[in-house]
Each structure stands twice: as structure tokens, then as C-alpha cells.
Design goal:
alpha/beta; 6-stranded mixed β-sheet; 6 helices
């Protein structure tokens, strides 16, 4: 069964931070559902946020990244994703790196991108819907 949900970086951050217990529980359920995928971009953004905003967790970052890798597939980005992201950003006004996640999600055949930061309910080209998993 193909994955259904593409995970944005903020879902990973809530799963591995102590910011919000309710959101951490939601993120944990999503990451262990067997229906999610993330990209290398998400891991890189996650690593940068941990280094900047949660420096006490930075020494354990490698172990956390391995835990994420064990929880869900991590997909590489392709040149096609970059080109598609430029198109998405130009047509819809999304930030480039958000557009890159959307492009990767489309390529992987996901139906949903789970993100707190993007436009909840937006449907990209009748193929991919952005859902904020923390408001449901």
C-alpha cells in the first residue's frame, strides 16, 4: 500500500520536543502509523531547528535521526522536485522550501501533506491536500 501522508518538518519537531504534549502525541501516532513518508529536506530542517532552538537536545541528534529513519521512509529529493517546486511557488505563492515538500509529495503519490505551517485545506492541482493535523 503506498504511503498516504507526507510529513512536514514541524510534525517531526513536535514529536521530538517537549513544546506541547497534545501535539507530541498526535505526531507520535502519525509517525508510527505506517502511512507516512518524509524527505531528506525534512531531516535537514529538523536538524537545524534542534541545533538552534533546542540546543540541549543537539548532542543526541544522530540517535534521534536514526529513530526517525526507523519510524518512516525517508525519500531523497530529485532534480524534478526542484523544477516542480519553482513552478508551484510561482503559481501559488508558497515559499520555495514549502513548494519543494509539496513537489516531493506529489512525485511520491501522497494524497496529503501534513503541516502546521502551510495553508490548511489547500488542494494542489487536484492531487494533494494540505492538512494541519493539529487542528483536527
Amino acid at each position: 500500500m503506498p504511503v498516504k501522508y507526507f510529513i512536514d518538518t514541524n510534525v517531526l519537531i513536535y514529536r521530538y520536543s517537549s513544546q506541547d504534549d497534545r501535539k507530541r502525541a498526535i505526531a507520535a501516532r502519525l509517525l508510527t502509523s505506517g502511512q507516512c513518508v518524509a524527505s531528506v529536506q525534512s531531516l535537514n530542517e529538523f536538524s537545524n531547528v534542534i541545533r538552534r532552538k533546542f540546543p540541549a537536545q543537539f548532542p543526541g541528534l544522530a540517535a534521534t535521526l536514526e529513530d526517525i529513519r526507523a519510524s518512516l521512509p525517508i525519500e531523497s529529493l530529485r532534480v524534478e522536485d526542484t523544477l516542480a517546486a519553482v513552478d508551484i511557488s510561482q503559481r501559488h505563492g508558497f515559499q520555495y522550501f514549502d513548494s519543494l515538500m509539496l513537489a516531493c509529495g506529489v512525485r511520491l503519490g501522497c494524497q496529503v501533506v501534513l503541516s502546521e505551517d502551510m495553508q490548511h485545506g489547500f488542494v494542489l492541482d487536484n492531487r494533494l491536500t494540505i492538512i494541519n493535523p493539529f487542528i483536527l
